[in-house]
Every structure is written in C-alpha cells, then in structure tokens.
Design a protein that fits this description.
By secondary structure, the protein is an alpha+beta fold. It has ten helices and 16 strands. Strand 13 and strand 14 form a beta hairpin. It is globular and about 70 Å long. About 35% of the residues are buried.
Amino acid sequence: MEHALSPTTLAELRRPRPYPAVSVLTPTHRREPEKTQDPVRLRNVVAEAKRQLEHDPAIPRDRRVDVEAQLDQALAEVDLTHAEDGLVIFAAPGEHQVWSVARSVPERVVLSDTFLTRNLVSAQAAERPFWVLSVAADRVTLWSGGADRVVEERSGGFPLLRANPNFDPERQERLGDMPSTYRDEGTRHFLREADRAMGAVLRGSPRPLYVTGEPAALSLLTDVGEATKAATQVPRAGLAHAGPNEVWLAVRPLIEAEEARGVDSVADELETARGHKEFVAGVDEVWQNAMQARVRLLAVEENYRVTVRDDGAHLVPADSGDLDAREDIVDEIVEKCLDTGAEVRFVPDGTLGEAGGIAGVLRY
C-alpha cells in the first residue's frame, strides 16, 4: 500500500484517464472493536463500485471487465492488519493503486475521468511529513516521517552503502581515534554523494529535514554538503543501522517542539488578522474565500468534520444520507487552498475556539 504523496505522484494521479477512473474510499480503524468491521465494509464498498460499473451504459464490456479485475487485484493487496484511518483505492483500465491514509475519509465510490485526490492531499497536509537522514561512515539511510512514525524510504538511491571502507578498527579502539574515520577522503566523498542524493529527494518532495549521526559525521556533512546545510541536526550515533522505532524516538522531541511552536504561530497570525480585518471563520465563509483564491493561511482543527450541501449561495448543514451531501467539504477546502498557494496548518482540537473548527487569513 502507498503512503507518501510527492508532487510528482500527485500530478500523475490527477492526469486524465479513459473513463472510468474509479475512486473507492472507506474509513478504517486502528483498534478493536471497530477494526473487526473493516473487512466487511471494504468488500461492500468494492461491490458497490462493481455494481455502478455494471449499470453504467457508457462503459464498454471489455473496459468494465478490465477495471473490475483491477479492483480485485487492489483488494488482494490491502493489508488491514496495519490499517490507519482511511483507505483509498484507485482503479482504471490497466492500472490500480491502494493508499493508506492517517486521516478518516467518507465511504464513497466515484466514477470519473480522473481520480479523486482531495482526501490524499488533505491527509498528507495533516501528517506534516518530514525527512530524516541517518548518516554513518559506511551507510546513509533515509526515513520518511509522518504524524507518529517513520518508515525507511528506499528510493532516490537510498540506502547508500559504502563497500569495504578502509578503516582500522583495532587502531581506533587502541587510540580512541574514531574521529579519524571522518577525516578520511573516502568518507568525505561518500557523504558528499549522500548530500547530492538528498538534494534530489528534496527537489522532488520538499519537506523539513532532520539529520542524525555522531557529531563528527554531522560536522563533516556540514563541511562537504549543500542540500543538508539547513537541516536540523540530531547528534545521535547508530541510527543509520537502526530500526524505525529508534529513529522515531530520537527525533520525536524535536518534532513535538516544532509542532507546538507552529500552533502558537498560527494563533498569533489569526489574532493579527482579526485586527486587520483579514480573518475568516466557519466552513461557509472559508469556502467562499478559498474558491476566490483569497486564503493565505488555512487553519483546521485535526478532527474537524462537517457535512454540508450547497444551496446555490451558501453551504448549509446537511445529513450524511442526503443525496447532495458533501461529506468531505473540509478536504475539498484543504486541497483548494493548497492548489492556490496557501499554507495549510492542522492544529489540536479546541485551538480555534469560536471559529468553529476552521479559520483563515486572507491575502487581501
């Protein structure tokens, strides 16, 4: 199952496809007892997708059979043992993808000529993704981080391995000369290559970067590198050869401190916007301004959800069972704001007070 949404991947997902491009969304659960119902719910929503394919006269039989087979393959790839909060399946002629997201999604099936990406985009923004680069003289490992975990990223040439480095461990042990490892010209070249590889990753998927390693390694990387100079350094050795839990525990305090500073910054910006009459709040008012690309900063409480319908002039409350209900309007707003260059920040529940779960700062 897929987790990381890069700009390149998003552009590919948004590419028009031969009809039908099928998007299947269903909420999933991390814990019992709700988790036990996830397999049944998933089979039912896939069955509903097949039913819609069967009854759509615009779909030729051979294409329908192809997409149904893609749905079956996607279903076989789903691993609900490690489910997060939502599951998104994309299927079109000749292709399918399965995405696990750490944000709840509404249960729905959409047949169109493009995949429905708003829920992926919103989940990615909510996770506040980051990179962790763990460096050692013989290995450099890249980790992709999210809300509560890191996973090893095996792309962009990572992990980088240095074959048979010419170290003298007996001499190092005898003389306590470990820093000499990082005065070796081969090590300098190795870390310079790691910096270049990291630069390519950051160009394709810009995120905050944390670099772990022993102090001598971090010093050398600063000396020879360019892309990693602005990274936050974590002086902790051994993580290039460690597992994800150890890496997460090493960077977690820094991540949490940065998030706390971010929440304070958002609150200050919203308060300043009130004084300059650049403040909007509530789903309808924020939606209207988002559609006009006027939102510069969007703040959303992490678990804020609301179901609405469009009465032609405003968004009004609706029940989830209503025919024209829009259950993922918050994700729509998030995607629209990101597409128009706004900064989107998710904040803890209750942070926005009377704003009603969602607020924004206007450009003008």
